[in-house]
Amino acid sequence: MITFPQSSWLASIVIPHQPHFIGQPDDVTVLWGYGLFVDKPGDQLRGGVLESLRTLVAVPTLLTTAEEIAEQVERLEIHHLASSEGDLHFALLTDWVDADVDRAEGDAELVAVARDGIERLNRRYGPAPAGPRFLLLHRLRRPSAGDHRAAA
């Protein structure tokens, strides 16, 4: 158990013995987070997230339309504005919708919208102590033998 003493919530993360679930893939780790005494005032670490508690807030996002991507970038900015101090990073964890091909028409434009939005946030708010505050983590489509489609 890891406890964050700077938090008035007495927030803790438990890393149980792995694998925790029957059939859990080898590349998956299960963590449990707890907020103890949540009726106490305050829900943040005083002075921001410490280097030893570096955190990445990852928002899963399907790249569907430029408008939807812009909305997700805006939401990422709102998360940052709610907790802007310390060693805290924010990422869009993006994926394609399934398709019959590895690269579909319009893919490059959609990933460019996401990339430009992340770059804009990094210019506006600057880096976190350990590097870029905003990240784009994108997964490419891979052929799927099961359904003969390229799955994200």
Description:
With 152 residues, this protein is of the alpha/beta class. The chain has 2 domains: 43 residues, no CATH class; 103 residues, Rossmann fold. 24% of the residues lie in helices and 26% in strands. It contains 2 helices and 8 strands, in the order ββββαβαβββ. The strands form 3 sheets. A 3-stranded antiparallel β-sheet has the order 1-2-3, with no helix packed on it. A hairpin with a 4-residue loop joins strand 7 and strand 8. Helix 1 packs parallel to helix 2. The protein is flat.
> Low-confidence parts, pLDDT < 50 over ≥5 residues?
none
User: How much strand content do the residues show?
Assistant: 25-35%
According to CATH, the homologous superfamily of the largest domain is Glycogen Phosphorylase B
CATH first level of the largest domain: Alpha Beta
Radius of gyration: 19 Å
Helicity level: 10-25%
Secondary-structure-derived class = alpha/beta
- CATH fold-level label of the largest domain: Rossmann fold
From N to C, what is the helix and strand string?
EEEEHEHEEE
Q: The biggest beta sheet, please?
A: 3 strands, antiparallel
> Within the largest sheet, what's the order of strands?
1-2-3
Gross morphology is: flat
Estimate the mean pLDDT confidence.
79
Number of strands: 8
Distance between the termini: 34 Å
CATH-scheme architecture of the largest domain? 3-Layer(aba) Sandwich
Structurally, the number of domains stands at 2
Number of helices: 2
